[in-house]
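Let us work through a complete example step by step.
Step 1: write down the sequence.
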Amino acid sequence: WVPSLVRLTDLMITNLLISNDSPSLFAGENTEVKILLEQATKDKNTFTICHVYILAYIEAYIFGEYELAANMIERRLEVEKTVSTRSHYFGMIDFYDGLVFLAM
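Step 2: predict the structure and record it as tokens.
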């Protein structure tokens, strides 16, 4: 799962560098992300699923797509209900959660 998360992060950073003002990775335009999410769902890998959604809403927030970001947060929260611990990333997740909901 670590190589897939590294690849996912790489895709997001690349998209930010060659930005065309849209969060293409998670707005349904990237098949590699779709395949990763489908495989993680099939394997019930909640860690990877949550991280896909985390990167999705950070990217959506950066591009000003606040409704998409809020949708990704809701999806992450649904997945996190099935696990005993949630991701924190040293406060980064709470920070971006707050930014998205303030932007709404």
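Step 3: interpret the result. Helices lie at 2-17, 25-29, 31-42, 46-62, 66-80, 92-103.
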